[in-house]
């Protein structure tokens, strides 16, 4: 049986954006949501490369306009939040202001620039589960006067869960497809739609990709133990939770240096847990 690979994990989501077959699907989706046509933009790999060259599954999804000075126009950052929590909204604001600050260099002329952050959230909008997507901007209290240098689009995937393609709901079904839990569910949602089935085919290929699977499994484990950490923290305190996370990572053969970087524990402390 072919292993299911979920598009909701950051590792998968970023790979699909960089895949020629899948990119068309996402460009169409972004245009539906924001009216922005990303076919006129190119990917700007600004995160430190891990050494995997073109197969680095962790590079940020930051897009800048084609054939244009990157200090001008619009920069777009796209994120996927698996197991979405309200604190992720705070994180997205930090991304926006980080991108804005990087566009300004001391002593240089200021160039007008707009930052657009698009977040796909695996969850509901806390205040109203019927809301599927929201766009935030900076404005005065009346909402009359706005600053155009930043926008944040929040897309709540749980609102669309289980919806299938028909002639009237293509956008909703495209979002529903991303949150499917099996290839069977994807086929049911796609209803024969070729562009969706092409995504599914790419996921099946990924399930056999030797370079991809370790990255994917590591992210899944980190998310699982992070959720465990949150639960343990409520009962036993943060220090105990961090040690529990480290123990679980050790049991899953994660190297000690990576555990130390992820938990803040020293190598000596980690060795003492064995």
What do these coordinates show?
The chain is an alpha/beta fold and 274 residues long. Helix content is 44%, strand content 16%. It contains ten helices and six strands; from the N terminus they run H-H-E-E-E-H-E-E-E-H-H-H-H-H-H-H. It has a six-stranded mixed beta sheet with strand order 1-2-3-4-6-5. The protein is globular, with a radius of gyration of 20 Å.
What fraction strand? 15-25%
The structural class is alpha/beta
Q: Tell how many strands the DSSP assignment holds.
A: 6
User: How much helix, percentage-wise, in residues?
Assistant: 40-55%
How far apart are the termini? 35 Å
List the uncertain runs: 47-55
Oligomer: single chain
> Biggest sheet: strands, sense, closure?
6 strands, mixed
Structural Rg: 20 Å
Q: Give the strand line-up of the largest sheet.
A: 1-2-3-4-6-5
Number of domains: 2
How would you describe the shape? globular
- Count of helical regions: 10
Q: What would the average pLDDT be, to the nearest integer?
A: 82
Please provide the ordered H/E string of secondary-structure elements.
HHEEEHEEEHHHHHHH
């Amino acid at each position: 049986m072919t292993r299911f690979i979920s598009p909701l994990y950051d590792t998968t989501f970023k790979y699909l954006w960089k895949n020629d077959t899948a990119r068309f699907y996402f460009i169409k989706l972004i245009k539906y949501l924001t009216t922005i046509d990303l076919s006129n933009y190119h990917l700007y790999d600004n995160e430190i490369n891990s050494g995997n060259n073109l197969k680095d599954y962790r590079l940020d999804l930051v897009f800048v306009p084609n054939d244009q000075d990157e200090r001008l126009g619009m920069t777009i950052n796209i994120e996927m939040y698996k197991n979405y929590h309200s604190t992720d909204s705070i994180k997205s604001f930090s991304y926006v202001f980080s991108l804005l600050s990087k566009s300004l260099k001391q002593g240089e002329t200021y160039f007008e620039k707009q930052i657009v952050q698009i977040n796909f959230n695996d969850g509901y909008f806390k205040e109203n589960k019927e809301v599927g997507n929201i766009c935030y901007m900076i404005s005065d209290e009346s909402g009359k006067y706005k600053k155009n240098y930043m926008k944040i689009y929040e897309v709540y995937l749980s609102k669309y869960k289980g919806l299938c393609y028909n002639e009237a709901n293509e956008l909703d079904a495209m979002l529903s497809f991303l949150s499917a839990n099996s290839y069977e569910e994807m086929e049911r949602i796609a209803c024969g739609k070729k562009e969706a089935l092409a995504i599914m085919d790419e996921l099946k290929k990924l399930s056999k990709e030797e370079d991809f699977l370790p990255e994917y499994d590591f992210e899944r484990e980190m998310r699982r133990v992070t959720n465990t950490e949150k639960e343990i923290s409520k009962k036993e305190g943060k220090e105990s939770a961090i040690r529990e996370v480290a123990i679980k990572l050790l049991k899953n053969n994660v190297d000690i240096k990576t555990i130390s970087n992820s938990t803040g524990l020293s190598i000596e402390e980690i060795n003492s847990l064995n």
